[in-house]
Amino acid sequence: MDSVLVLLLLFVGAPAVVACAYLAVLSLLSAPLPAPPPSSRTLRFDVIVPAHDEALVIGRTLASLARLDWPATQFRRVVVADNCRDATAALARAAGAVVLERRDAERRGKGRALAFAFAHSAADGWADAVVVVDADSEVSPNLLEAFATRIERGAEALQAHYGVLNPLASWRTRLIEIAHGSFHVLRSRARERLALSCGLRGNGWCVTHALLRAVPFDAFSLTEDLEYGLTLGLAGHRVHYAHEARADAEMTSSAAVALRQRQRWEQGRFALQRRFTPQLLRALRRRPSRLGFDLLCELWVPPLSYLCLHVLAFSALAITAWRYDAALWPAPLAALLSCLVLLLYVLRGWALSDIGWRGVFDLARAPLFLLWKLRVLLSRSLREWVPTSRHHP
C-alpha cells in the first residue's frame, strides 16, 4: 500500500512541482530590461491588420497606427478585410489604409488572412518586414522604432508587450490584465534575459521578409501565433521581446464571449501539444539546446488556472497521505512550496500589470475563475476564428 501511495504522489506531484519550479526561475529573472539604442529609422514596414467584421473599431485602430513615430513614407497600414459582411473595407479605405479584400468561405481564419497579406506584401517587394496588429487594438507610438532597432542588430522575429486596452471594464478584464503581467511581461523578460524565444502572442508582432522566405508562414490552426512561433523555434529562430513598445487589445467583459475565446485558444494549444511535442523531442535528441528545451516547457506548462487546480489536487492528496503515514512528510512540504511559488508568481504578475491595488481585491474571485476554467475545459470544440464581440458605445 505504501509503495502504491508513493507512486501516486510522484505521478500527481512531480509534474506540478516541475512546472512550479520553472515558473519560479522565470519569476526570479523578471527584472526590467535595458533600453536599446536608437535605430537609423530607414526600414520599411507593412503594418497588417487582419479584420473580420470590425467596422465598429477599425477606425480607432487605424488612427492609432497613424500616430506611429516613424517616417510616414516608411510604413503602410494594410487592412485585410477577411470575409467581411459589414463596412470594414470602406471605412479602412476612408481612413487612408491599403485594403485587401479576401473572399474564401472554405479556407477561413486569421492564419489564412495573414498568409494572404504576407504574400501580397512579399510580391509587392516594398517592405522589409511585416507587423501584425489586431483590429481592436491601439499601439504605442514607438512600436516600429522598437522593432527596427532590433532588426538592425540581427533580430528577425519580434514581439511587443501585449496588453489590455480596457483593464478597468470589469473584474474579468482586470484579472486578464494581471494574467498578462505574468504570462506576457514576466515570462518574456526572463526569456529575453536568457536569449530564449518569448514566443508570438497574436498581436503586436513583427517578422522580416527574409525570415518569411526562410520559414514560410503556414500556420492555420486555431492558435496560429503559437504555431508559427514553435515553427520558428524548430528552425532555430527565436522571437525577441521588444519590451518598451506595446499593442493593447480590447478584452471582452462578456462571460459567453470569453468562454468561446478561451475555448479557441486552449483547444488550439492542446492540438499543438500533440503535433509539436514529438518534433521538439526529436530535435532535442539530435541537437540539445536551451531554446528547444524552453519551447517544450512552454508547450507543456499548463495555463495558470489549470496548474492551480493541479497543485490543489496534489496538496489534498499529499495531506491525506501524510496523515496516513507521517514518513511521507516531504509530499505536503513540496505541495506547500508549490502553492507559495504560484502565489508569488501571481503577485509578481500583478506588480508588473497596470491595474493597481484594485486588482488585489479582484484576485479574491480566483476560485470562481477556476470553476469557469473547468467549464472551458469541458466545453465543445471550436473550429473557426472567433473575434471579440462588438457593442455600440
Mind sketching the topology for me?
Blueprint: H1 2-28, E1 45-51, H2 58-66, E2 75-82, H3 88-94, E3 98-102, H4 110-124, E4 129-132, E5 137-139, H5 143-151, E6 157-164, H6 171-193, E7 205-208, H7 209-214, H8 224-234, E8 240-249, H9 255-286, H10 290-300, H11 304-324, H12 330-352, H13 358-362, H14 366-378
Helix pairs in contact: 1-6, 1-11, 1-12, 6-12, 8-9, 9-10, 9-14, 11-12, 11-14
Explain this structure to me?
With about 400 residues, the chain is α/β, with parallel strands linked by helices. The protein has two domains: about 1-30 and about 300-380; about 45-275, Spore Coat Polysaccharide Biosynthesis Protein SpsA, Chain A, CATH 3.90.550.10. The protein is built from 14 helices and eight strands. It has helices at about 1-30, 60-65, 90-95, 110-125, 145-150, 170-195, 210-215, 225-235, 255-285, 290-300, 305-325, 330-350, 360, 365-380; strands spanning about 45-50, 75-80, 100, 130, 135-140, 155-165, 205-210, 240-250. Strands 3-2-1-4-7-6-8-5 form an eight-stranded mixed β-sheet, sandwiched between helices. The longest helix has about 30 residues, at about 255-285. It is globular. It starts with a helix and ends in a 15-residue tail after the last helix.
